[in-house]
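Much of the work behind modern protein science is quiet bookkeeping, done one molecule at a time. Below is the pair of lines this work produces for a single protein:

***
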Amino acid sequence: MNARAANRIFDTVNIVLLTLFLLLSLAPFLHIFAVSLSSNNPILSGKVTIFPVELNFEAYKRVFGDVTMLKSLGFTVFLTVLSTLLCMAMTIAAAYPLTKAELKGRKLIMYMIVVTMFFSGGDIPLYILIKQMGLLNSMWSLILPPLVNPFYMIILITFFQSLPKSLEESAELDGCSQFGMLIRVILPLSLPILATLSLFYAVNRWNGFNDSLYYITNPDLYPLQLKLYQLIVNSMASDNLQMEGNMIVQITPESLKAANIMFATVPILIVYPWLQKYFVSGITVGAVKG
């Protein structure tokens, strides 16, 4: 067997294995989608796999028919965008100075930051702090506590340190200040890692649930995850009966939960392809110093 035939067999086996892995990864998502579109009896009898059985849109009518749900979606989009921008600004502002060897106390600062990755005060002291600051029932209670993630900051520091020092030296010779160097030289070269960390921050905020459950009691400030939780709890406590013409249509909690999962998942999935080209390079380059 020559080398070309061996490579062809190797590529074929890889394609088959990757295709199977893709199908296995998609199966749970397709199952949830099928449940959200299936009728009551097939769901209860366990007949729904990855294809809808007895097509039924009542769960989606319940979700999209709730005006407060759409309002919560808009607020969550605004919250996610604002939080991501502020988190990235603070992470960059913290990471860039720590790349400078001449910064006094740099090792001590890094040590104090790393310690926070392993030890924290806990939820109760944080709740007391948020309450004493008057941030309860405020969107800032969802933005300020996770403003800088130490792990993401360390990744960004490593990426900054991997950039050629000659670029900074050339900028200094041209009379560029540190801030100008960051804006004109460092950040344009850091788009892969910035896009990757922005995606991480956005996903964390989009999926955030515990902090909103602790700090938010005003329905007008419910993020999407908390709103979906409230909807599911209320649906399980009711009979889930709706009138359609002269017929009574029953919605199972499983169908409603599946529709809620799709409603919360699809928007963030739409964003991912736009950042995918930066994702792999951002992680690999930021993971080790080049």
